[in-house]
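#struct-pred
JK: can someone run the complex with 2-succinylbenzoate? inputs below
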Amino acid sequence: MLRLDRLVLREIRLALKEPFRISSGIVTERRIFLLELYDVDGAMTWAECVAGEMPNYSPETIDTAWFAIREWLAPRLLGRSFDGPEVIRGVLDQNVRGHNMAKAALEMGMWALAATKEEVSLSQRLGGTRERIPTGISLGIQSSPDALVQRARAAFAQGYRKIKLKIQPGQDVEYVRAVRAALGTEVHLMADANSAYTLSDADHLAQLDAFDLIMIEQPLGRDDLVRHAKLQKRLKTRLCLDESITDADRAEDMIELGAGKIINIKPGRVGGFAVSKAIHDLCERHQIPVWCGGMLESGVGRAYNVALASLPNFSLPGDLSPSARYWERDVVIPEWTMDAEGMVRVPRDEPGIGITIDTGRVDDLTVKREGLESQSMATR
Ligand code: OSB
Ligand code: MG
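RT: done, structure tokens with the ligand placed:
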């Protein structure tokens, strides 16, 4: 049984080693939203809400998620008993539309709390089977093809199993061509446009077919499954959807319409683990590969993504880069690492999320903190 009696919300600031640019914006310092969840029996876990600083990827931001959790979502969980984490999404969804990342932070935290209490790893609690996950890197838009080639070379040398190149109109075909020419045909390359194109760019995007990409991620609008289906018919390269897949029904729509052939599952974007698992299972039945995307998480969020990516149909490398790719120093001990074969280890033998939070460091980095308690706690 789960019963949350206290939550602590925190914002910490963590500077990226290098600014990360995608077609819709740039981030230099992450505003990271961490949560502490305390069960009435004394168990606790840390969780992360992956909403961004700006609403350029999804409509949510760290500020809207904080508000949604405090005002609408946390009050539904605090002080109530639940049989297990499987039921949490339904409770959070009742008459609250959207706010998936806010819902996910709580829902995933409840899965971790359950794993902690049952003394099993989060990976095992989710039904994960893999012990190591192949890792990919997502390279932001660079100032020139040469600068991108340099970063792609370094990533390849480090052992990454997949290299994703962010693209946008004006910085696409020549950039991808340069990387393919420099690294050769062995390396697994893909491109991610974060919705920067329209269907009228179809002929232009078809030029990318020459570079044997494993996929092109989210070229068109997030609400645009129909046009993605039209675009897919004009491309040899498989489309992968990210922003468009906000729930399991959208995944079904994608499959039915032929709007894409691969799904990037980010548990925050779909509102948590229950829906992530549903999408994973649906795709497995339809032989659609899935992989786990990233949102420039701290090591806390990474633990959740790694656990999810240990499910069997996560058959392509995830955007699960090690801590040192993002930060001078992470907030978890040990930091996340990748071996020379480009694999990240799943902490399957440790209960819960499987890493320790450097609480002293988190305290030092905290710029905003708010405690929420169940009514019964507050009055006793
Ligand atoms: O589209 O996958 C994306 C980061 C922020 C917003 C959107 C995306 C990304 C990434 C980063 O690609 C992946 C990572 O966390 O390493
Ligand atoms: Mg993406």
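RT: quick notes.
The chain has two domains: 2-119+356-378, 125-345.
Residues 192, 194, 217-218, 242, 264, 293 surround magnesium ion (ligand 2) (CB under 6 Å).
JK: thanks, will look after standup
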